[in-house]
Amino acid sequence: MDINALFTDEGLRAFTATVRDQHVRDAQQYGQIADIVRRRLEQTPIEGDRWMSKKLRAWKVSRQLKAMQKASGEAASKAEALYATYKNEVLELPQRRAAAEARKLERKQGRQAALGAAVAKSLDKTVTALNTPTEQAPGAVPQARPAEFVTPDNPWNQWSMAAGGERLTSTINDYFAKGEGQ
């Protein structure tokens, strides 16, 4: 067997097909032999057997052949898995990486275009807002609140107190009613 041929698609495919076919044939033979052995042992009594001794003995012996059949079937499926994994992880990897890089570049260009459109829209809104005349006198500072809500002398007196009227309290006890027993 040429080991270099094993690292090509055709070489590995031929190897795994050969191994798979051999394991499938072996599994079939093990199954047939297990059935023959079980039937023969079920019909062959040994002196001192009890009621189910023949069937139990036949089952124990044929079970080992069935295990061999199962192992050969699993080996055949592992041969197919070997080829699929090699193809996926080695042969197709460069194409998948190139496709991923192309998608990444496309997303990056899409984000850059969206960012450019957002900046252009923002600049357009700014220019429109700066060129639109307002009713305010030039040089005047815009007020955050209308003048009727703020008193210029003392900002704390603009809200009435919730409990206690207009009188300022001096301690916390003024907020709570005194009990009769205290």
Overview of the molecule:
The chain is 62% helix and 0% strand. Helix 1 packs antiparallel against helix 2. The relative contact order is 0.06. The chain has 182 residues and is mainly alpha-helical.
Q: What is the ordering of alpha helices and beta strands?
A: HHH
Helix content: 55-70%
Number of strands: 0
> What value does the Rg take, in angstroms?
45 Å
Query: Which shape, going by the Cα principal axes?
Result: elongated
Largest β-sheet summary: none
Beta-strand proportion: under 5%
Q: Look at the structure and give the mean pLDDT.
A: 82
Counting H and I runs of at least 4 residues, what is the number of helices? 3
CA distance, first residue to last residue? 106 Å
Low-confidence stretches: none
Look at the helices and sheets and give the structural class: mainly alpha
List keywords for this structure.
single chain, 182 residues, mainly alpha, 3 helices
Give the gist of this structure.
The protein is mainly alpha-helical and 182 residues long. It is built from three helices and no strands.
Question: What's the structural blueprint in terms of helices and strands?
Answer:
Blueprint: H1 9-43, H2 53-91, H3 93-131
